[in-house]
Structures are given as structure tokens and as C-alpha cells.
Amino acid sequence: MNQKRLSRKEISDAVDGLGWRFVLGVVRTSVPVTSLAQAAEVAARAVAAAGEEGEASLWLDVRKDQVILTLQSLATGWVSALELELAHRVTAAVSELGLRTDPGTGGQGPRSVQMVEIAIDALDIAAIRPFWKAVMGYGDEAEAHGPEDPLVDPAAQGPAIWFQQMDAARPQRNRIHFDISVPHDEAARRIGAALAAGGVLLSDTAAPAFWVLADAEGNEVCVTTWQGRD
């Protein structure tokens, strides 16, 4: 039986208190550690807590200073009740080691957890999508197989690529920009840091879904959150 698709707010509310954040279709956290051996122990505990039912939902990035944990249903490209349950179980397992799940918001870590997308403006999306799929070695996003749908890295390492429809050609202007999806409580700090570093705020009319910024030469980037999208 198909379960109701959870809203972005439902997902975010369910994990915020656990030290996880909802960003771009996943829930993600990091666990600060002091060695690669400790990182491996965290990873082992997380895998054990997730169990067999969680093997298709849990991704791990193991490093000497942190373990990044991500939960998403690969079948749907979204977060279901199972992933929320797994977040509770993994958090408890990490706590048993005397460690914490920490999204790194508020400047508390090297940076907050995040997801990155590349947006490509195009007049004919269907004509260019196969090129980007081939040259990047990418595949279709879960449940999104149309000629204008996003592309994702099957190894879950590179940023997703999506295509923005143009109505007319725009010569001498950037047609590729980055989308930086950050925790909803990290956006203001990240934008402030970008503006202090010489950036310009081009538009906040769609905030808090996204803000459009640019560097000193006009190259654009969007800082996005889940808010304002349900």
C-alpha cells in the first residue's frame, strides 16, 4: 500500500531535534570524531542500528574528523517514515558512543550539512539533457525519467543537475549557476557571510525558498531551503 508522501515541514520537524536537517530530499547530519578509527566505529554502529531494512536508505561518508550520515529512500528520491525512524535509531546508537549528531549550523562546524545542484539554462532541454547525462556518467533521478527531468550521480558523490527553461537566448550572461541547499536555520548566516565577502543580493522575492546572489562579476548562485515549497 502506498504511503502518503511526507511534506517538507513534516520531515524537517521530525528530525530537527535530533541534530539532523532536511535538505533537498534527504535528511543529513554529521558526527564529529577525533580519528579515522573512531569514524569507522561510528559507521559500524550506524549500519547496525539501521539494520537490513535500512541498507537501501543510509549513506555514509567516513573521514578522520567526521562521519556524514544521509538518509533517503532511493526508490522515491524522498524521505519516508522509515528514514525518520532510522534517524532516531542511528542517533541513539551514536549517543551510546558518547558522541553527537550535529548539522553544523550556526558556524559550529567546518560548514553545515548541505546539498549542491548545478542548474543549466536551456532553450531546448530535451536536446541537451542526453549530452550532460553521457558526459557526466549520470542517471535519471528516482521516479523522474522524462526528457526535461533532473540528472543525478549514481554514486551519490557529485551534485545533481537540473535544467531551467529559457524563453530567449541570453548571450554574454552566465547560463549555469549553483544551487546550495542548506538547513533552514543556516541560510541567514550563509547569506550574510557571502555578502560580507563581496557578494550582492539580487533577489529575495522567493525567500525563504531561495535567495539569488552574485559575485562581484555577476556570476549567480542561489541559496535554497525547504521552506516555502510545500
From TrEMBL:
The keyword Isomerase does not apply. Keywords: Lyase. GO terms for molecular function: 4-alpha-hydroxytetrahydrobiopterin dehydratase activity. SUPFAM superfamilies: Glyoxalase/Bleomycin resistance protein/Dihydroxybiphenyl dioxygenase (SSF54593). It is an enzyme of class 4 (lyase). Its EC number is 4.2.1.96. Gene3D superfamilies: 2,3-Dihydroxybiphenyl 1,2-Dioxygenase, domain 1. Pfam families: Glyoxalase_6 (PF18029). InterPro entries: Glyas_Bleomycin-R_OHBP_Dase, Glyoxalase_6. Residues 118-224 form the Glyoxalase-like domain. The keyword Signal does not apply. This is 4a-hydroxytetrahydrobiopterin dehydratase. The lineage of its organism: Bacteria, Bacillati, Actinomycetota, Actinomycetes, Streptosporangiales.
